[in-house]
Amino acid sequence: MELRLLATFEKVATVLSFTRAAAELGYAQSSVTGQIKSLESSLGVELFERLGSRIRLTGAGERLLPYARRMGELAEEARGAVTEAAEPSGPISVGTMESLTSYRLPPLLEYFHHRYPGVRLTLRPTLGDETRQALRQGTYDVGFLMEPDTEHEGLESEVLAPEPLVLVAAPDHPLAGRTALSTEDLAASRLLGTEPGCPYRDLFEEELREWAPPFMEFGTIEATKRGVAAGLGVALLPRVAVAAELSARTLVPLPWEAPFTLFTQLAWRRGKRLPAHVRLFVEQARRLVAEQRG
Q1: How far is CA 146 from the centre of its chain?
Q2: What is this structure's pTM?
Q3: How far apart are CA 220 and CA 61, in angstroms?
Q4: Residue 124 and residue 133: Cα distance in Å, rounded?
Q5: Above 90 in pLDDT, residue 209?
Q6: Are 74 and 86 in contact (CB under 8 A)?
Q7: Which domains does the chain have, with CATH numbers?
């Protein structure tokens, strides 16, 4: 079995789409279809069921998939072993979320752009469950998580830092002059937030579920900050995301501490041996987040 055919099979099996697999691999769709047919012919089995415009793995395809992944990882390991002294290079698919992409990762991305141009980073914007599932399936090489839990089924994870949260308001908001706030005090306030699935938004909403205050969804952090600055309500956001606004006093912190802690983490599939350039990414992420905290 050719490694090239197995790599194409793994990609199609992961995304369950010939069209999407072709786009991600940089092939014509006809080429991907031809490679899968060649692999099926050499094995004497069908690997996919064609269901109109959809596909799914056959039993044989499901049995082949873990072997295809292991052989791909072994090929990467072998390549790394014989080119160890060479400049780090290779693709890295990274699952991440807006607050980390915008406010934690720029120094890391800049570092790799200038220092290791052969490392090709692709950022995939996803949240929690979707990121974890993509890591388990092998769609992502590594993924950033911001979660209260630090153990994740089927994944190895490393805590990079606790992620401080802060409740913010406009300087002229009625709560801005208070010296203390209870959770009950927030019940009469309008809450602003990002999209559902964002961990701090979901935990904040759950904390206030008993009082069910009105919650205005803005989708992104930048839109949420603009809404808060306009006096539309208060929002719980990562401190790193509002540091500039707090310094400029366009937003002010409120005296309420979240009763939960989130941890920024880097995760990858359990049992996966990370290639040298991916290990380098993990090491530099650890270093740069530590420097940001310091």
Answers
A1: 9
A2: 0.72
A3: 39
A4: 13
A5: no
A6: no
A7: 3-82 (1.10.10.10), 90-294 (3.40.190.290)
